[in-house]
C-alpha cells in the first residue's frame, strides 16, 4: 500500500488502495483508487523494477567477485541465473512466495513486486556466497545480519500476502458448536 491519502495521488495513473481493519471479527474494508504517473520516469515516483541481470550483477558486486566497471562474464551470468532460479524455487517450497517463475533470459524484467526486490537481492547474495565458498559469518557479519533480516521480512510478507487454509485442522474439543453441555 502506498503512503498518504487518495488526495496525495490525484491526477495520476491508476493505483488501487485497500485497507482491512485489523480488529478481529471486523468486516470493515476501505477501498479507493488513485492515480500514478505514466510515461517517463519521475524522481518523485521511482520505478524499482529490475532485470534478472541487475540482480545477478548486484550479487557479484556486493561480494566483490567483480568490480563496478566489469560486468559478469557470460558464464558467471548464466551460473547466477541458475542459482537465482534454484533459490526462489527453494523459497517457494518453504512457503515464501514472491510471484517468481523460472527465468531463462538475463535481460528479462524480474517478476518481483517492488517491495520484494531488495530482499531477493540480499538473499541471492547469501546463495552466491555459499556457492563460491565465502564465509560471510567470518568475513562480513553485518551483511549476514542483513540477509537474515531479509529472510525474516520476506517470510512475514509471504504470510500477509497469502491466505492460510485452515480446513484441515480439527475442531475444538467441544465439537463444531462449542463445548458440550452436561
Rg result: 21 Å
Low-pLDDT residue spans? 1-46
Characterize the biggest β-sheet: 2 strands, antiparallel
Order of helices and strands: EEHHHHH
Strand content: 5-15%
How many structural domains?
Answer: 2
SS field, number of helical segments: 5
Secondary structural class: mainly alpha
N- to C-terminal distance: 50 Å
State the helical fraction: 25-40%
**Overall spatial form:** globular
Mean pLDDT: 75
Q: What topology, given as strand order, has the largest sheet?
A: 1-2
Number of strands: 2
Summarize the structure.
This protein is mainly alpha-helical. The chain is 40% helix and 9% strand.
Characteristic key phrases:
single chain; 182 residues; mainly alpha; 5 helices; disordered N terminus
Structure in words:
This protein is mainly alpha-helical and 182 residues long. Helix 1 (52-62) packs across helix 3 (117-132). It has 2 domains: 8-36, no CATH class; 52-161. It has helices spanning 52-62, 74-93, 117-132, 136-139, 141-161; strands at 13-20, 29-36. The chain is 40% helix and 9% strand. It has a two-stranded antiparallel ribbon with strand order 1-2.
Amino acid at each position: 500500500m502506498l503512503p498518504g491519502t487518495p488526495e496525495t495521488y490525484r491526477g495520476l495513473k491508476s493505483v488501487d488502495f485497500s485497507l482491512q481493519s485489523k480488529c478481529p471479527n471486523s468486516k470493515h474494508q476501505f477501498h479507493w483508487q488513485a492515480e500514478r504517473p505514466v510515461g517517463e520516469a519521475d524522481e518523485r515516483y521511482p520505478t524499482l523494477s529490475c532485470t534478472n541481470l541487475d540482480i545477478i550483477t548486484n550479487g557479484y558486486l556486493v561480494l566483490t567477485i567483480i568490480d563496478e566497471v566489469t560486468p559478469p562474464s557470460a558464464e558467471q551470468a548464466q551460473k547466477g541465473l541458475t542459482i537465482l532460479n534454484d533459490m526462489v524455487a527453494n523459497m517457494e517450497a518453504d512457503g515464501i512466495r514472491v510471484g517468481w517463475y523460472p527465468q531463462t533470459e538475463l535481460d528479462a524484467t524480474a517478476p518481483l513486486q517492488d517491495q520484494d526486490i531488495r530482499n531477493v537481492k540480499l538473499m541471492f547474495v547469501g546463495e552466491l556466497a555459499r556457492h563460491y565458498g565465502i564465509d560471510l559469518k567470518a568475513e562480513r557479519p553485518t551483511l549476514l545480519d542483513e540477509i537474515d533480516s531479509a529472510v525474516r521480512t520476506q517470510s512475514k510478507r509471504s504470510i500477509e500476502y497469502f491466505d492460510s487454509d485452515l480446513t484441515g485442522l480439527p475442531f475444538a474439543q467441544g465439537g463444531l458448536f462449542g463445548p458440550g453441555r452436561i
